[in-house]
Batch of 4 targets.
Target 1
Amino acid sequence: MKLESLWNLQDKVIVLTGGSGLIGSTALEVLPQTGGQLVVGVRDTDKLTRMIEKIDYADGVKKPQAIPLDIADSASISGFFAEVQQQFGRIDILINNAWPRTQDWLTVFEDVPVDSLYKNLCDHAGGYFLCCQEASRYMKEKNTGVILNMGSIYGAVGPHFDIYQGTGMTSPAAYAMIKGGIHNFTRYLATYLAANNIRVNCLCPGGVQDDSHQHPEFHARYIAQTPLGRMAKPDDIIGPMLFLITDASKYITGQILMADGGWTAW
């Protein structure tokens, strides 16, 4: 086997949900370089199209295509995957990366309204569930496919709440329920879809530095508890993502991979 064949996604159709965040926007730049056709499902396709237009892709690279998707809406999900199938004829890879949340997302545990809790659970975890359900229908037709769910260190361990003190930040209680559920749902799907040659894994980033809204004190405290001595950059997450969606990991399924600078190793 040649080395390049392990990382080559030539002519694969790669579906990415959520492409405008820190990790998603970096994936916009990198994934098309693998030779595949990246299709991005987002609510604001105009914004994403403007982002794509600003990227200087090399000659011959297929530019990403934006198609409307709201993973909080079941009809939008089924319509999106049907559109991808109609336009491109196949769905080879799904990366569940969208992050829907309510405006009161950062409310402390004691004050979370029940309606907010239910909406966040349904929109986020439920959206991942339905995207996997729809994508796997088309993957089964080809008897092959890859699903990558984006989890979190906080789906595996509890937060260090002292790093948030005095910063106006917190780790929402619903987030732990959602991501922990996605981790084990990944294991469930891996065994359920194995007969169809569909691999399912979960990639769990640690804290990704974002100076636009994260408090400097939070940065310092987080870094002090990270063995590698820094927060993640978006491109720190893309390498493991590539590994899990390519043939470099063709015998790996049902796994939860931490990309956290050692945060969960203490």
Target 2
Amino acid sequence: MGTTSYNRRQFCQLGLGGLTGLSLLDLAGCGTSSASGNTTLQLSFWGPSSRNQLTKKTIQLFQSAHPNVTIHSSFTDFNTYWSKLDTQIAGGNVPDLMQMDVSYVAQFVQQNLLVEITPLVKSKVIDLSQLDPGLVENSKFNGKLYGVPLGGNYESMYYDTVLVQQAGMSPPPQLMTWDDFANYTRELSQALKKRGIFGTSDTSGDYSNFEVWVRQRGKNLYTADGKLGFEVTDLAEWFDYWIGLRKSGACASAAVQASAPVPSVPNTSLLTLGKIVFENNHSNQFSSFQQLAQHKLALQMSPTGSKPGLYNKPSQLMSISTKSKYQQDAAEFSNFFVNDPKSIQALGLDRGIPGNKNALNILSATISAADKESLEYTQMVQKSGQSSPLTILPPAGAGNFSILLVKISQQVAFGQVSASAGAQTFYTNMTKALG
């Protein structure tokens, strides 16, 4: 791996001698491997089945190089992942390694569940020297790093190029305002109405898409002191925008949208099922959607506003549990995941553009055509003037945002509450969650 390796006794000595007072290292777990000297780690992550297959390849590569370590992995969709983790935590069965989203880091730090990895970086168990400094910085909470950033991505839209042609329309311009997007998708729906195909999915409950909307208004989802950084009117106008698209037929009806329980998962997406033309998602998932799509897909930037709304988001972190008895092994796997050339090849761009500076050279000859499009999209966004750094990371309680937004957006979509009432309910409940 190109890094210094320590046995468990040395690791414990580092903890006791050089890390005195750092309660984030669960030193009580050191030296408690099985009688045979073998270690078993549990890894949990979210994502589609394609990610599971790629992750298994890296696990097998690591186990070949570390025959005394066995890694069992489990995966599920994004929303189920967090409720499952809550259950595991309540039962005292926290995975050794957890794929972590930046919006949940503060919550897990408050619960003292994540190892702060700076000591592991200083001792060279984890090597971050080849990782993009900006990506590392954007992964920190209160100036501390609680996981290894696995890659970066931008919010994007995918669209079905064949359905656009069949609608008799030209491909969309790369830069469209929100009004332009509403008009374009309305025309798509009108042209494809007899086939029951809508211009776009309803993403009024999409956390990342709403964040783009807010940032384009010169605001952030959160303030530096951990409060909501936008006004209730911003959310009401967001809901009103999607009400307008539903009324015009531009986006999927409430009933059709509800039939896709997890839009971010390719096999349940309305896009891969051929029911819509446009779908929102992160750029790193383009390849997995293309694999299941009926037609050729293309990447499109989110609608534009008066200010840049996109940013290079750390796609996931690989975090180590403070409850793990085998933190050194977990740290070595985290290091292997982002630095080993064979691991980089096995994972490709599934978790975003890898932070390792050498990764693109390693991948250039092997990545798929869809992954190349994802990479080209990233490079285009970086030159477009439509992105700016994210300066305020999510506070504790931010994990409730996406769950609450989905719930309220569905109530608005089905006409159970008005846009203004729904926005006020969300704002009140989210303020309490952050409180």
Target 3
Amino acid sequence: MKIRFVAVLSLFLIALLCFGLSLRAQAAPAQQQFATNTALPDGRILYTVQAGDTCGRIQLLYGISLQQLRELNENINSDCTNLIPGQNLLIALSGPAGPSATPGPSPTLPPPTTTPTPFAGTTEICVLLYDDLNGNALREATEPAVAGGAISVAETSGKYSKTLQTAINPDPNAYQGVCFTDVPEGNYNIGVAIPDNYNPTTNLTYTLDVKAGDRAEVSFGAQSRDTGVAAPSGGGPSGGGTSPILGFFGAILLLGGIGLGWYALRLRGPQSKLKRSGLAKR
């Protein structure tokens, strides 16, 4: 009986010892990182990233916001997923340490200051001066660009103004117009000066509103005087060219008038003869 009691007591002590060891293992993990506000000589407070660390854990350790953590460490991405064990993170800047530091309360970080950045979005305005071969004031795929002209783009309030010359791009697949880049958004007056040997087929001015990030395209038509199609349809100054269509209709009208005159003379001849014969009988 005594031996049985000793055996039971031994098993109880062994179980109690194992239970105490398990509690100790749970209460004291092998790796534990505590926050520290001890500044380096240059005033920086650093934290070394541990395995399994997240930005949320570091925020709780030091009582800072995610915005402050990202402002002090530009290498942290927007999702805070690129933390690497062993990486040093800047937690605060308290200024260079003095010659004799007096222990005191932990420094309180000032609230972050945010400087608003003005929106600097720009747009692009592309203008094409094309040879309106058929004079219909519409850009056709076969109508080429016109070189030797000038394009002016001016913002109505005067904050932007620029003039570029038109030219023909040797690459037929490239855009043949003139592009004004880095143009601030606003209301613009676009004007075109055509070469001397051309007549306009569209209005040569246009008003355009553009927003940041947009790309606007405007086309103006002009026709070479050697082509000889009708006068401009957009109200611009008329040229001295003649239209072959008008000349054709004019020739038809002229021939019709000659034919009617000849027919009238043929009718008048017999009537005169009848009148003379009637007088002779009297």
Target 4
Amino acid sequence: MANTPDTAAPSSRIADTLPDLPMVVWMVLITLALGLIGGLDANALIATYNTGFGSALGEFALILLPSFVLAAALAHTDIASPGMGRITATLSPVAGAGMICPDTAYAALSPAAGNSRLDVAFGAYAGFKLLYPAGPLLVATGLGVLGQNGVGTELALYGVALLLPVWAMGLLWARLALRQPARKPNPTAPQTALSDTLRPFAPFALLASLLCLGALLGPTSSGAINFLLQPKGALLAAALLALAQTAAHQRRGCWDSAVRRTGSLLLLIGAASAFGAVLTALVPVEDFVPQSSGLLTLVGLFALTAAFKLIQGSSMATFAAVAPVAAPIVLGADVPAVAAIYAICLGSFIAILPNDSYYWLVRRDALEDDPENAGRIWVLSSGVTVQALFGLILVLGATLLWGS
């Protein structure tokens, strides 16, 4: 999901002539320029910008803050131990979804992944995109369809069913695309009991349990219980459990880290949402997405999101920017809301390029044996593209089979 890479991409002649500004500043400037060039007067531009910037920002804060607390708490835990490679690969989609960030999930799990680091990279990325309460919840929130006709429960079930084959496709690609030499085990590494190794993942188990219980029980007469059994409350409970497992002197640091990351990301999300709102006010994007056929609409949403992802780089910024553009399309099309949400989620898979910080994180670790940037870009981008196209085929097939 990524804000900015911690290692800058190799500079080009064009890049050398541009001011060195943070991504969010570029987004604000481009949005304002787009509105002025498009003919919006100052008052209309500011009003549209304000509406887009504040869209669902409070809900995003309730999702991101506990997720980053959870990530910070896990970062203080040493999960590395012999034989953990397969376990971390298996848990990587859950970590990617629970932390609402594939970068953080990969950084936390990769030290214990060993030869399974590329498996972890594809797993964390797929989990963030497809598992509730990560990408699907963010997209549903941005579209304003969360809670309509049991959308939340359907998203959770649909996501798990979709993740397994899409993730398997990523694992297969990792085997075929890159064969790394096995790393020698460290004989001095401390032996850690399996129970101690898995203990840091207890918050994810609590998160899943609360969401499943909420799906089974439905609304209750208690507002507090209803909040706890919904994604935002379940994330908060998981974060508090993670803090309880963290040393007392480290807890304030976890909160401080979460506040910094949430604040900067909310600024990015707001700017991206404003960009989408201004673009929608100027360009009838819905005219470019066919709505005469449900399947063609899903393909159009997939392609629209992929285009945003190629431009934005950041997955979170893509979700925020595409939501106001896609919302009228989803509401006006004769397609299931859940299928539309996952068409958008799958479109955001494309692609892991140097304008995405996930590329810089994975390339220096899982792909360190490949000295060429071109080779690394090919392995990562082609892998997630294969996952995206395979997932889209599954979504189209399910929609055709069960109808709208």
